[in-house]
Design goal:
Helix content: 40-55%
Radius of gyration: 67 Å
Distance between the termini: 35 Å
Shape: elongated
Number of strands: 15
């Protein structure tokens, strides 16, 4: 890799390190933030037992009075139906906070103080009594219609307990204004005097609903509630009209006459949950009509065919349609503004069928939902809301704690990797300095290489020179003769230069052919030309014969002999050294114009000679540059003066 590529890679590495420094700074900031989150979340988690203990105590305090009222009510129901039973001393509502939520379990305390679960550890008869009371309580604590339908809720009670059960149920309904439809398989006589008794009877294949008896006294102040229910083509009912009282309504009949169909039809209307099994055999559809307050009627229809099988219609006292819905799938938004029987916590608190008489005591119902359905007073609801909010905060804190720990671990692992960039940054700085030094050394190496090349060339020349063992020369006379020839060449060059200048001036004169003189103007021009020629003649007269320089005296003959030996060894150098600069030659003096013709001839010869010399000079130009350094050495060796004229030689160099 060359230096430029290394610098490019180093620059890219430096940019990457700079970016990683930004990443590391962001990771450090995130690490601090995560540590703070973990501290705050851990503090919430660590304080959870203390907070839950405080909320539990607050919950117990706020529920204490309401719980005691409910416990007393349920205990009274139990004692009224089954008096003097040491195994059923009192009913206990056990509440506690589990998993940041309020839980509720119902137990029965014995005379000895032991508490047993009302569903799992007690008989079904006790379960029936407590379930009826709990349903009354749960409905009364909502804004829904105070209306309950219970199908065979006494199926585990012996007949001897039914009158007392009916009596306490009627008293409870009057006290809290609850309208009840109670379906029972027990004889009607068990309920006489406590409720309106309606008997279903099949006559000629048709079911009719007749009032058998009324209660001893009717409370005129009790809300009217639902006035009637009409079943059309609903299972056994072709067209059955059931008129209801505002209190307790007992439905009795023989088996398979259609008692439970009434509960199923009411549930289907409230939840829009129809099925083909409810439609009378051979009929395309069914209809359930409910008479509401203020002479309003609600009609629900269900068909066997079609994508939208159900239809709701609400009419006022005049029969005009107030609301209508044919969605066929969902409960209309306006329905429970009039019917008021919507589910609570996704649980139907109004209707109990023969298969679910345990209500919220059933083990399928969690203790948390049981606490939600049986809200223990307004204060308790507020505490439960606080507990729910705290539970949500705790869940959020735990999730945040776990996520922050995972993220912190990841950030710290990234920091462990990115943290090494400090050393990398220092290495990059060191590498940059190293590259600078390498550049300097490279420049030095290049210079050394050049000098090495020159040195190798000089060594080669020295080797060639060293091979010359002997130079033959006769005497100083030959050197003097060579100097004479050099002097003659210089003289000839000077003469050629002067002749060239003179010929250029002569050629510059424009001599025209003799004109025909017919006017004085041409004569004047001829006179001017003659004047120019005369001036030129006077200038040519000044030319005298060329004065040659005097013959220099030779000094230091030994050094001259050594120099001559070296000049002879290298003819190319000798040619460059002995050729003077023509521009520095002095101008010769011509003594008479008669020599001009001779000069012209010599100029022609000299021109050819100069051309030949120019060609040779161009060919030897490269050799001349190679010899400059050695010439400098030679000049230094002879003392810096020309051995012939003792003039100071100029230093040479490229």
């Amino acid at each position: 890799m060359d230096i430029s590529s290394a610098r490019t890679s180093l620059s890219e590495c430096s940019s990457a390190v700079y970016a990683l420094k930004g990443v590391m700074q962001a990771l450090l900031s995130e690490e601090l933030m995560l540590i703070e989150k973990i501290k705050s979340s851990q503090l919430l988690v660590d304080n959870k037992p203390n907070v839950m203990a405080v909320l539990d105590e607050l919950n117990q305090r706020t529920q204490a009075r309401t719980k005691s009222v409910y416990e007393e009510l349920l205990t009274t129901l139990l004692h009224e139906v089954k008096p003097d039973d040491p195994e059923n001393h009192s009913v206990v509502l056990q509440t506690e906070i589990k998993k940041s939520k309020v839980s509720l379990d119902v137990g029965v305390k014995t005379a000895q103080g032991f508490v047993r679960n009302a569903y799992q550890d007690k008989g079904r008869s006790v379960e029936n009594i407590i379930a009826m009371g709990l349903r009354f309580i749960s409905v009364s604590r909502t804004s829904n219609r105070r209306f309950i339908v219970m199908d065979e809720a006494d199926n585990n009670l012996r007949q001897e307990y039914i009158p007392a059960f009916a009596k306490i149920m009627a008293q409870l309904a009057r006290q809290i204004g609850m309208q009840v439809i109670y379906i029972s398989h027990h004889p009607a006589s068990c309920f006489e005097g406590h409720a309106r008794i309606i008997g279903f009877e099949r006559v000629n294949g048709r079911v009719s609903a007749d009032v058998i008896s009324e209660p001893a006294g009717i409370d005129e102040l009790q809300p009217a509630g639902i006035r009637y229910i009409r079943l059309v083509n609903t299972k056994q009912h072709e067209n059955t009209f059931i008129e209801l009282s505002p209190g307790v309504n007992i439905i009795t009949a023989d088996i398979d006459v259609g008692k439970s169909t009434l509960a199923q039809a009411i549930e289907a209307v409230a939840q829009n949950e129809g099925r083909e099994g409810l439609i009378r055999d051979g009929e395309p559809s069914l209809m359930v009509e409910i008479g509401l307050e203020n002479e309003m009627t609600l009609c629900w229809e269900y068909s066997r065919k079609g994508s939208r099988k159900t239809k709701y219609t609400l009419r006022d006292s005049s029969g005009a349609v107030c609301n209508e819905s044919a969605d066929g799938q969902y409960v209309p938004e306006w329905l429970h503004d009039y019917l008021g029987m919507e589910k609570k916590h996704d649980f139907d608190i109004h209707i109990s069928d023969s298969h679910n008489s345990s209500f919220i005591l059933d083990k399928k119902i969690s203790s948390f939902k049981r606490a939600d359905l049986l809200s223990l007073g307004r204060e308790s609801a507020d505490v439960q809301k606080m507990i729910r909010i705290y539970a949500e905060r705790m869940d959020k804190a735990v999730r945040l704690l776990n996520e922050s720990k995972k993220r912190l671990d990841l950030v710290q692992r990234k920091l462990a990797v990115v943290g090494s960039i400090t050393d990398v940054d220092e290495n990059i700085i060191t590498l940059g300095k190293t590259l600078d030094e390498i550049d300097k050394h490279k420049e030095r190496l290049n210079s050394i290489g050049k000098y090495a090349g020159k040195l190798a060339s000089a060594n080669e020349r020295c080797r060639q020179l060293s091979e010359i063992t002997q130079i033959e020369y006769n005497s100083n006379i030959e050197i003097q003769a060579g100097a004479g020839r050099l002097e003659g060449l210089i003289n000839e060059l000077c003469v050629m230069k002067e002749k060239t200048q003179v010929m250029e001036q002569i050629l510059a004169v424009n001599i025209k052919p003799a004109p025909n003189y017919v006017s004085p103007e041409p004569i004047a021009k001829i006179g001017a030309s003659i004047d120019k020629l005369l001036k030129l003649k006077s200038r040519l007269e000044d030319v005298t014969t060329l004065e040659l320089p005097s013959k220099p005296e030779l000094r230091q003959s030994e050094r001259c002999l050594e120099l001559a030996n070296k000049i002879k060894e290298n003819s190319d150098r000798l040619e460059i050294l002995v050729i003077p600069d023509i521009s520095l030659l002095t101008k010769p003096n011509y003594r008479s114009p008669d020599n001009i013709a001779l000069v012209g001839n010599k100029i022609g010869v000299a021109s050819k000679h100069v051309a030949n010399l120019s060609t040779r000079l161009e060919q030897d130009r490269l050799a001349h540059h190679q010899c400059l350094s050695e010439k400098e050495i030679l000049i230094t060796e002879i003392g810096g003066k020309c051995p012939l004229c003792e003039q100071i030689m100029p230093k040479v160099g490229p």
